[in-house]
Amino acid sequence: MPGDADSMMNDWAGLPATYGDVLRRAMDSLFRTFENFSEGTFIVDADARVVWINKRYAARFGFADPQQAIGLDCETVIPNSLMREVVNTGKPILLDILETDREPLVVTRLPLKDDAGTTIGAVGFALFDELKALTPLFSHYSRVQQELIATRQSLAQARRAKYTFASFVGTSPASLEVKRQARRAAQVDSPVLLLGETGTGKELLAHAIHGASSRADKPLVTVNVAAIPDTLLEVEFFGAAPGAYTGADRKGRVGKFELADGGTLFLDEIGDMPLALQGKLLRVLQDREFEPLGSNRIVRADVRIIAATSADLPALVTAGRFRADLFYRLNVLTIHAPPLRERLSDIESLAYAILEDLSTAGRGGHFELQEDALRLLCSHAWPGNVRELRNTLERAVMLSDSERIDARALAPFIAVAGASHGASAAPAAAANVAAGGRDAAAATATATAAAAAEAPAQPSWADAMATFEKRFLGEALEACDGHVAAAAARIGMGRATLYKKIAAYGIEV
Ligand SMILES: Nc1ncnc2c1ncn2[C@@H]1O[C@H](COP(=O)(O)OP(=O)(O)O)[C@@H](O)[C@H]1O
Ligand SMILES: [Mg+2]
After folding, report:
1. In ligand 1, which atom is closest to the CA atom of 169?
2. Nearest ligand atom owner, CA of 270
3. What DSSP state is assigned to residue 49?
4. What are residue 444's phi and psi, to 5 degrees?
5. DSSP assignment, residue 120?
6. For helices 495-505 and 461-479, angle between their N-to-C axes, nearest 10 degrees
7. pTM of the full predicted structure?
8. Measured in angstroms, how far is the CA atom of residue 3 from the centroid of ligand 1?
9. Which ligand is nearest the CA of 164, by number?
10. What pLDDT, in 10s, does the model give residues 407-451?
11. Has residue 499 been placed in a domain?
12. At 478, phi and psi to the nearest 5?
């Protein structure tokens, strides 16, 4: 009949007789195994007095003969012993660390019960006499812990503003006005909309605004809407409960809104946001709360929005591709980042700031722009704006033998950049500048466009080589699925050199 004692024995009562035998042997050998392999074993009675202690254990605590310990309180024999607690509560302490005057011991303590389930004593095993035995476990644990700390630190680092207003170079009236507006935007908490062509410094401004705002010591989290597939955007924004969708991380996912709590969420290329998600975003901006995908959890997030786009947002609204209500919600403080061609007077200081940055970024050298180089820079239309200017200078610096950058050193790269935008005008402009044409400095996009209309110019040797090399490297990389090391080996080029050239030519890997 299942009585108290049986229920103490879990559900073993119904075991067939033969199994009962196995069970008895299991219990018996369990004790023997522990006894044999542990560093020490002892048993106490219901009053926590030592009933039995093995030789090794007794010796460790200074009893040459185990008999001397019998009948003594457990704490007298083993200081810090918790056997009395086990006897009193009837509950095991499965794993614990016992401090001793030597090495600490890893111990386990189990109550002993009679048939009626009454605690009649306890048995204690010292599993290891050195924590060393647990070293693999501990080191695994502490490695995981270290990794977690490092990841958190680097994330926190990454979420701090990288640029300040000081990083925004330019003293042209257009630049000063942009900085003035951005500084004002930093003082308030309403949404900011940054409009402007690609490469005009919208991301830089977003960082600067966050960094100068009262949210500066909270995270700045960026979502590049154009870079994430539509199907993943919702999860990216709002997160998902564990297993909420096929392929979801088993542990679920924290959305960018939640990560940015207290700080700033920078929505880059917001013009690319799918309409359905625009509706959800608008609701979150109004309610300041949302539910991660597949969860019943309401998340409140206090987030300041900075949105940017190079698209013509009002035109998208007219075309029905951007919700008017979301546009009005975002269009509170709107800042237009002017294209580079409208602030040619900034080019010199921008170029020097970029060259300075390039030399501190490990390329060394103190670069100087020759007069004709500056004139060439000012004659280009810069459809890619400051980003294009930076890429151009980076390429010229990498492949130039001299620290004095002249128009000849720049021309091939401006030509390559121009060609990728469908104009091969730059060599003509370069020739013009190199020839010392007085008007060249004043020449702008108009000159470039006019030159483009002429018959295709004979490309220079450097130009042709650069075009060939870029294509050659691109093909090698493609053949190796973008593996730089593999591609370098395949074409017999040093890996570092290939990396440099990839950066110099702006090859997408
Ligand atoms: N006014 C500026 N002063 C210094 N660097 C700038 C400036 N504007 C843009 N840049 C640089 O040009 C590149 C592109 O800027 P970014 O902010 O990413 O442009 P956008 O987001 O508008 O495409 C970055 O390397 C950035 O540091
Ligand atoms: Mg950008």
Report:
1. 3
2. 2
3. B
4. -130, -155
5. E
6. 120
7. 0.60
8. 79
9. 1
10. 888 888 885 444 444 333 444 444 444 433 333 333 333 344 334
11. yes
12. -65, -40
